[in-house]
From TrEMBL:
Domain EngB-type G positions: 30-200
Protein name according to UniProt: Probable GTP-binding protein EngB
An example molecular function term from Gene Ontology annotations: GTP binding
Species whose genome carries this gene: Mariprofundus erugo
InterPro entries: G_ENGB_dom, GTP-bd, GTP-bd_ribosome_bio_YsxC, P-loop_NTPase
GO biological process: division septum assembly
Task of the protein: Necessary for normal cell division and for the maintenance of normal septation.
UniProt keyword annotations, A-Z: Cell cycle, Cell division, GTP-binding, Magnesium, Metal-binding, Nucleotide-binding, Septation
Family (UniProt): Belongs to the TRAFAC class TrmE-Era-EngA-EngB-Septin-like GTPase superfamily. EngB GTPase family.
Signal peptide: none
Cofactor entry: Mg(2+)
Pfam families, sorted: MMR_HSR1
Lineage start: Bacteria, Pseudomonadati, Pseudomonadota, Candidatius Mariprofundia, Mariprofundales
Amino acid sequence: MNDTTASRIHWPNTHFLQSVANAREFPDTGLPQVAVAGHSNVGKSSLMNALFGRNGLVKTSKNPGCTRLLNLFAVDDRMLVVDLPGYGYARASKSEQNRWISMIDGYLTGADLKLVLVLLDIRHGPKDSDMQLIEWLNEAGIRWVPVATKADKLSGNGRSRRLKEMTDAMGGLLKPLPTSSAKGLGIDNLRALLQQELFDA
Ligand SMILES: Nc1nc2c(ncn2[C@@H]2O[C@H](COP(=O)(O)OP(=O)(O)OP(=O)(O)O)[C@@H](O)[C@H]2O)c(=O)[nH]1
Ligand SMILES: [Mg+2]
């Protein structure tokens, strides 16, 4: 798909569907599902706003631990995108961290997922917890793609070098797609990727 085609993909009818505290409460929508996973504060909720072209639809914060429930968004009544709480938020209490992990784990285990976007901060990822998630997804046979967030924080050679290092750290097969929600970078490409993975395959 070329850039012009990619920039033509829009999802005007995105709406918040529901928040779920427990994977068992998950509604049966019959829509193909994409989950957005990654460390706390990596930029999951911001990326969803950029993807939907709707600032403020998904709640974001500069403080880690903002998203605490599974938040479901229906896109054009064709796809369900699930914003997950971030993992690895060190300042949350142990019991809260455990609750989040079991919520995410319960969801990933039970959901009929088409794809997981694994978000990695271009400056820091992948961390051990990211690698654990990736290994788990591989073992479960769930398709995933790495997405590098906050690409505006690095430029030129620094950005290319980090992307190469991240690719190598994840086994050399998948190169993260660089994105910046702040600058709108890579968002068209991400839309095109979702379109391809979910509807054109
Ligand atoms: N510079 C820059 N900052 C970003 C970008 N994306 C997100 N941020 C900032 O990163 C912080 C965290 O963003 P969120 O989208 O709330 O992160 P999250 O991964 O949903 O966090 P949790 O819900 O706590 O897991 C906010 O201050 C955002 O403004 C980006 O592309 N560039
Ligand atoms: Mg969030």
